[in-house]
Amino acid sequence: MCALHPKQIMNCVIYAENYAIAGAILFYGKEHGLPETICFNDNFTLWAPDRIDPDVLIYVNWNTGGLESFFNEIKLADQINNEYFRDNGLKVYLCTDPQDDFPGFYTGKVAALKSKYWK
Fold this sequence. Notes:
alpha/beta
């Protein structure tokens, strides 16, 4: 498991690929002081901030989802290993050293997704 430095924690974002995982992180993460979780699945899109510029992105998904284009370093931080968990094997990636174009990519993506709800 990877640990974050206090400076990294100050500007860290968690992104979960589906709403069930995002909801679980929000629910259980409050007790541990985790940041709000971003998700572009279903209504979570509406709650996503319009802009982010993180030093660290914690990405929860089965694979890296193409984040190699936006972060210079991506490490597998951990993986769920619980036979009773519906998504057993789900991975947690620690993405650091973001490239300069990541904030712009995110801003454009969230604007496009939100525009489907507001014309």
